[in-house]
Amino acid sequence: MPFIGVLGGMGPAATVDFLDKIVQLTPAKCDQEHLPWIVSGIPQIFDRSQAILGDGPNPFSQLASGVDFLNRAGAGVIVIPCNSSHHWYDQLLTRSRAPILHIAETAVYAISPCSHQRVAILATRGTMSSGFYQQALAKRQLVHASISTILQDRVDRCISLVKAAEIDEAADILSNVAQMSVAQGVTNIILACTELSVAASFHGVLPAVFVNSSLELAAAAVRYGLERKWNHLGNLTRDILP
Amino acid sequence: MPFIGVLGGMGPAATVDFLDKIVQLTPAKCDQEHLPWIVSGIPQIFDRSQAILGDGPNPFSQLASGVDFLNRAGAGVIVIPCNSSHHWYDQLLTRSRAPILHIAETAVYAISPCSHQRVAILATRGTMSSGFYQQALAKRQLVHASISTILQDRVDRCISLVKAAEIDEAADILSNVAQMSVAQGVTNIILACTELSVAASFHGVLPAVFVNSSLELAAAAVRYGLERKWNHLGNLTRDILP
After folding, report:
1. Which chain A residues contact residue B24 at CB under 8 A?
2. Phi, psi (rounded to 5 degrees) for A236
3. Helices within chain A (DSSP H only)
4. Which residues 48-67 of A are in CB contact (within 8 Å) with B?
5. HSE-up (13 A, CA, CB side) for residue A139
6. Which residues in chain A have Cβ-Cβ distances shorter than 8 Å to B164?
7. Tens of pLDDT along B98-115?
8. Tell me, what's the ipTM?
9. CB B38 within 8 A of CB A39
10. How far apart are CA A12 and CA A98, in angstroms?
11. Chain B partners of A239 at a C-beta cutoff of 8 Å?
């Protein structure tokens, strides 16, 4: 049976947060009405941001091995709840039989284009340097509001804290960054790193201005699966996996 | 590289809660220090409790297909965060190359044998009828305190509510069942259904008397992986999956 293939583990807490969103967004009264998913949660994949910046080994073959695994298992669609990994999106898509939903496309699509909007991107330095979020904004005629180096330092710190399970402190930093950005005229803040979604869900930190890339990708995956009735009992076979 | 294979999806919210516990219990400062896991989260598997009671189709071949899948992917150990599924534990273990940690063994092992203890088991009717928890208690010389039919009805309702994402009401019911049990002289309450772990984590419901089977299985899986250094960078290869 087809399922949502999740290339996760980058990082593990962000993957759990993403899966939680998939479950919460699925209307279901019993197990069998939920959507099927298989998750590769291998956190040993080389640091994506460092690799993009030229400061570490290239994780592409590890990411590709995860995509190949999910395809072999029979994934009907693949999602990668790690923004930085989307630096290699085109190369991964080329080798994948299953479509791969693009996290930046789903996040940016959640913002209605409107002339007065100024959109900040909170992400790893690797994602910022890669430029795919800026391109996705430009495609939708949305104005990108750069954040200062000081705020970027705080975003980096927030991401590291989530990976080290220091969610309390991470949430405080995210709240501070959001307040500073709004004070500088930002109207929408894309949480363009899945660790930031974990920090944001800790206690509501200015949620009105946040566009959560993890939530938008989960919503897109759920829509994809529900439209194809992957949670429909009719798909049930005794041997559920190849 | 070896990883923790998780046969999940029964139900999906319980699987997410279990994975959250794995991540929280792992001491790690960055992604790469976390343990690798692969999760089969196929909720279309036939209802385990109904099957044990003779009220529904047998899920064994579906469970077996999940165990086979995780073995083929290279699991170093398998865990099943669904108590009722352990009715088929012996048959699943026979076909598995990887060891399968038994959720009831890990839960019961968390209770120090002590003559005055009276242990209640909150579980599906299938798990209760199967008897593997009662046997695990007996093996440790622990006294099983049966709960009334009225309380069992409430446990059933609590489990269904979690599967339908009505966590608020489920938590209230669990709190009530726990209070009634303690009033009747129970000293330890095993949450012997992984849905009950979701309800228990909603807002601290008499946590002192709870033995959480989901938490104990996660702790056992983390110990298993850490002892074998599966989170050690030395295990890293470029092709992470077969």
Report:
1. 165
2. -70, 130
3. 12-25, 48-52, 60-73, 89-95, 103-109, 125-130, 132-139, 149-163, 167-183, 194-200, 213-227
4. 61-62, 65-66
5. 12
6. 28-30
7. 999 999 999 999 998 877
8. 0.95
9. yes
10. 23
11. 61-62, 65
